[in-house]
Structures are given as C-alpha cells and as structure tokens.
Fold DUF4083 domain-containing protein.
Amino acid sequence: MISSFSIPGIIMLCIVVALIILFIISFTLFIRRLLNNISVTSNQSDQMEKKLDRIIELLEENKGR
C-alpha cells in the first residue's frame, strides 16, 4: 500500500496538511484577538461613561451653588 505513494506525493501531502493546520491555528488566534479587543473596547467605554457621569454630577453641583 505504501509503495503506491511516491516521495513527491507524500511531501506534497505533508505540505497541504501543514498548511491546513497553520490556517486553523491562525484563524483561532485571530478570533481570540478579535474577542479580546472587543472586551477591552467595552471596558474602556464603560470607564468613559463613568467619568462623564461624574463630570456631569460635578457640573450640576457647581451650577446649584
């Protein structure tokens, strides 16, 4: 059975399998980084909202005086 495969065919098969594995790893890392960036952006916007709320509160207190 193995004798029916040629050396160039086996090398080509190894290259194709390696490329498929590399694609899967790259895609997984891309998705992980994308999700991580979304969570960081969400946290930053939450912090910005809290700061803006605090500024508005301080402005309203100064206006009332």
Q: What stands out?
A: The CA atoms of residues 20 and 34 lie 21 Å apart. The two ends are 92 Å apart (CA to CA).
